[in-house]
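Quick start: read one record
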Amino acid sequence: MFEAPTKKMRAVLPQEVPFKSMINNSCQGGSLVAAILTGDAQLLGSALDSDVIIEPVRAPLIPGMLAVKEAAKTAGAFGCTISGAGPTAVAVVPDPETGARVAEAMGNAFRSIGGLEVNSSMVVKLDPEGAKFV
Protein backbone atom coordinates (compact mmCIF):
# COMPACT_ATOMS: atom_id res chain seq x y z
CA MET A 1 0.00 0.00 0.00
CA PHE A 2 1.20 3.50 -0.82
CA GLU A 3 0.33 6.56 1.21
CA ALA A 4 1.15 10.15 0.34
CA PRO A 5 0.69 12.21 3.49
CA THR A 6 0.25 15.86 2.56
CA LYS A 7 2.87 16.91 5.12
CA LYS A 8 5.49 14.60 3.58
CA MET A 9 4.62 15.62 0.02
CA ARG A 10 4.76 19.33 0.91
CA ALA A 11 8.13 18.90 2.60
CA VAL A 12 9.83 18.13 -0.73
CA LEU A 13 8.62 21.30 -2.43
CA PRO A 14 11.33 23.85 -3.13
CA GLN A 15 11.44 26.96 -0.95
CA GLU A 16 12.57 29.02 -3.93
CA VAL A 17 11.65 28.59 -7.59
CA PRO A 18 13.66 29.72 -10.60
CA PHE A 19 12.02 32.59 -12.44
CA LYS A 20 11.90 30.59 -15.70
CA SER A 21 10.04 27.75 -13.95
CA MET A 22 7.52 30.15 -12.44
CA ILE A 23 6.89 31.70 -15.86
CA ASN A 24 6.32 28.24 -17.34
CA ASN A 25 3.85 27.18 -14.66
CA SER A 26 2.05 30.53 -14.76
CA CYS A 27 1.63 30.21 -18.53
CA GLN A 28 0.35 26.66 -18.11
CA GLY A 29 -2.15 27.95 -15.55
CA GLY A 30 -3.47 30.35 -18.18
CA SER A 31 -3.61 27.50 -20.69
CA LEU A 32 -5.52 25.42 -18.18
CA VAL A 33 -8.16 28.14 -17.78
CA ALA A 34 -8.39 28.65 -21.55
CA ALA A 35 -8.76 24.89 -22.08
CA ILE A 36 -11.58 24.66 -19.56
CA LEU A 37 -13.40 27.68 -20.98
CA THR A 38 -13.13 26.42 -24.57
CA GLY A 39 -13.55 22.70 -23.87
CA ASP A 40 -10.17 21.94 -25.45
CA ALA A 41 -9.18 18.56 -23.98
CA GLN A 42 -5.86 18.44 -25.80
CA LEU A 43 -4.80 21.82 -24.38
CA LEU A 44 -6.06 20.77 -20.94
CA GLY A 45 -3.94 17.61 -21.03
CA SER A 46 -0.90 19.48 -22.24
CA ALA A 47 -1.24 22.15 -19.54
CA LEU A 48 -1.65 19.58 -16.77
CA ASP A 49 1.33 17.63 -18.12
CA SER A 50 3.72 20.60 -18.14
CA ASP A 51 4.42 21.30 -14.46
CA VAL A 52 8.14 21.93 -13.89
CA ILE A 53 7.98 22.82 -10.19
CA ILE A 54 5.89 20.39 -8.13
CA GLU A 55 5.57 17.17 -10.13
CA PRO A 56 9.32 16.74 -10.73
CA VAL A 57 9.96 16.54 -6.97
CA ARG A 58 6.83 14.62 -5.99
CA ALA A 59 6.70 12.03 -8.80
CA PRO A 60 9.85 10.19 -7.65
CA LEU A 61 8.18 9.61 -4.26
CA ILE A 62 5.30 7.73 -5.92
CA PRO A 63 6.44 4.24 -6.93
CA GLY A 64 6.16 3.91 -10.72
CA MET A 65 4.70 7.38 -11.34
CA LEU A 66 7.10 8.29 -14.15
CA ALA A 67 6.30 4.99 -15.90
CA VAL A 68 2.58 5.56 -15.31
CA LYS A 69 2.77 8.97 -16.95
CA GLU A 70 4.62 7.56 -19.95
CA ALA A 71 2.18 4.63 -20.23
CA ALA A 72 -0.79 7.01 -20.20
CA LYS A 73 0.60 9.13 -23.01
CA THR A 74 1.67 6.09 -25.05
CA ALA A 75 -1.90 4.75 -24.74
CA GLY A 76 -3.35 8.01 -26.09
CA ALA A 77 -3.71 10.45 -23.20
CA PHE A 78 -3.21 14.14 -23.95
CA GLY A 79 -1.47 14.44 -20.58
CA CYS A 80 -1.10 12.85 -17.18
CA THR A 81 -0.24 14.30 -13.79
CA ILE A 82 -0.40 13.82 -10.05
CA SER A 83 -3.64 14.88 -8.43
CA GLY A 84 -3.58 16.24 -4.92
CA ALA A 85 -0.63 15.32 -2.71
CA GLY A 86 0.01 12.25 -4.78
CA PRO A 87 -2.29 9.34 -4.00
CA THR A 88 -4.07 9.87 -7.32
CA ALA A 89 -2.93 10.16 -10.92
CA VAL A 90 -5.18 11.71 -13.55
CA ALA A 91 -5.02 11.64 -17.34
CA VAL A 92 -6.96 13.62 -19.95
CA VAL A 93 -8.22 11.61 -22.92
CA PRO A 94 -10.21 12.37 -26.06
CA ASP A 95 -12.93 9.72 -25.66
CA PRO A 96 -14.13 6.83 -23.43
CA GLU A 97 -12.48 4.14 -25.56
CA THR A 98 -9.08 5.81 -25.25
CA GLY A 99 -9.84 6.35 -21.58
CA ALA A 100 -10.30 2.62 -21.04
CA ARG A 101 -6.94 1.90 -22.74
CA VAL A 102 -5.21 4.62 -20.75
CA ALA A 103 -6.69 3.43 -17.44
CA GLU A 104 -5.51 -0.11 -18.16
CA ALA A 105 -2.03 1.08 -19.16
CA MET A 106 -1.71 3.25 -16.05
CA GLY A 107 -2.86 0.42 -13.78
CA ASN A 108 -0.44 -2.00 -15.41
CA ALA A 109 2.44 0.44 -14.94
CA PHE A 110 1.57 1.02 -11.28
CA ARG A 111 1.49 -2.75 -10.72
CA SER A 112 4.50 -3.79 -12.78
CA ILE A 113 6.90 -0.87 -12.26
CA GLY A 114 5.66 0.63 -9.01
CA GLY A 115 4.74 -2.64 -7.30
CA LEU A 116 1.43 -1.10 -6.25
CA GLU A 117 -2.09 -2.40 -6.37
CA VAL A 118 -4.62 -0.06 -7.94
CA ASN A 119 -7.46 0.79 -5.59
CA SER A 120 -9.75 2.04 -8.32
CA SER A 121 -9.71 3.51 -11.78
CA MET A 122 -12.50 5.09 -13.73
CA VAL A 123 -13.16 7.00 -16.90
CA VAL A 124 -15.42 9.98 -16.36
CA LYS A 125 -16.61 12.89 -18.43
CA LEU A 126 -15.90 16.35 -17.07
CA ASP A 127 -18.97 18.32 -16.08
CA PRO A 128 -19.02 21.37 -18.38
CA GLU A 129 -21.27 23.31 -15.98
CA GLY A 130 -18.99 23.06 -12.95
CA ALA A 131 -20.17 23.53 -9.38
CA LYS A 132 -23.81 24.34 -8.74
CA PHE A 133 -26.22 24.70 -5.83
CA VAL A 134 -28.56 21.78 -5.22
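The longest strand covers residues 79-83.
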